[in-house]
Amino acid sequence: MKKYRVAVVGATGLVGTEMINILEELKFPVEELLPLASAKSAGKRVDFNGKNWIVKELKNDSFKGVDIALFSAGGSISAKFAPIAAKAGAIVIDNTSHFRMDKDVPLVVPEVNPQDIKKHKGIIANPNCSTAQLVLALKPIYDAYGISRVVVSTYQATAGAGKEGMDELMSQTVSILNGKGVLPPKKFNKQIAFNLIPQIDVFVENGFTKEEMKMTEETKKILGDDSVQLVASCVRVPVFIGHSETVNIETKKPFELKDVVKLLENMPNVKVVDEPSKNVYPTPIDVVEINETLIGRIRRDFTVPNGLAMFVVSNNLKKGAALNAVQIAWELVNQKLI
Q1: Active site includes 234?
Q2: pLDDT, tens digit, for every residue of 5-29?
Q3: I want to staple 116 with a disulfide (CB 3.0 to 4.6 A). Which of 106, 175, 265, 311 is the partner?
Q4: Is residue 79 predicted with pLDDT exceeding 90?
Q5: Do 256 and 157 fall within a single domain?
Q6: Among candidates 185, 200, 290, which has minimal Cα distance to 237?
Q7: Active site annotation includes 243
C-alpha cells in the first residue's frame, strides 16, 4: 500500500495529540509524520509508531511534499494556512469551524455522506463535535422514514473547550473540595465545577449561541436537506470527556420502534446500549476509551405523531474531532482520491 506524508497542525494540542494517536490506532499508512505547531511548541517531541518526531514551527513553506494535512489549531490558523497547504498540493482536513459552511468545501462524516468527499477542492471540513455524533443517529432514520423536525439538548464536556477547559474544571473542583472556595472562572463565563452553563460560544442576534446554530446549519448540509428543522440548546457540564445529547425526532413516515433499533444497530460505528430495566444506558464515562457512538433510552415521543426520543453519547475528542478527521483521510485512500 502506498504511504503518505501527513502533517498535523496543532500537534501538541488536545485534539492534535489525539489525531496522532488515532493515525497510529487506525494504522493509517504514514510514511512521514510532520507535527506542526507554534514557535512556542517547536522542538518538542511526539511519539508515533514507536518513533520520536520533532515538532516544527508552522510556516508558509511547511507543506512542501505533504499529501494530507490535518488541522486543529484554531480558526484563524486554518483561515491563513489551509489555503497555503492546499495550494502546495496537500489535501486539508480541517477541524475548525472556518470552512464548514463554505459552499465549495464538503462537510463530511464518513458514515453519513462519504460521497461528498469527491467534491473537495483541496479542503474538507470536519463538523462540530456535537453535530458529528448527532448525524450518526439521524442518518439511518432519515433514510428510512424522513425527518421533519429535531429538538436536541446537549450536555457537552469541558474537553470541548480544550485543555484549558478541563484544567479549569479540575482546579475549581479541587479548590472547593479542599475547602478553599471557588477559584474565579477564566476559560468559562461561570463556575463550571458542580454547575451547568447554558452557553457554548457567543450569542447571536436570534438569542441562540453560535454552537446551537452550527448544529442546525451543519446537520442540514451533511444530510443534504434544508427542509429538516432542527433547534438546539447547548449546555456545558462538569464532565471532562464525552458529549451527551437528548434527541427528539419527528419523522415523516410512521415507524415501528423495533425497526428503528435495528437500523441504529446496523449503523457503522454506532452501538445501541439500551436495557433501561437493568439500568443499562450510555453515559459519558463509557466513551472515554472507545471510538463508537453509544445510543440508548430509545423510546416513542408520545407528544407528536411519529415522535422518537433517544440519548446519544460520544467521545468529543474522537468522533467529534480526531477520529472523524482520520476516517476522512482513510476515505480519500479507499476512494482512490489521493
Answers
A1: no
A2: 999 999 999 999 999 999 999 999 9
A3: 106
A4: yes
A5: yes
A6: 200
A7: yes
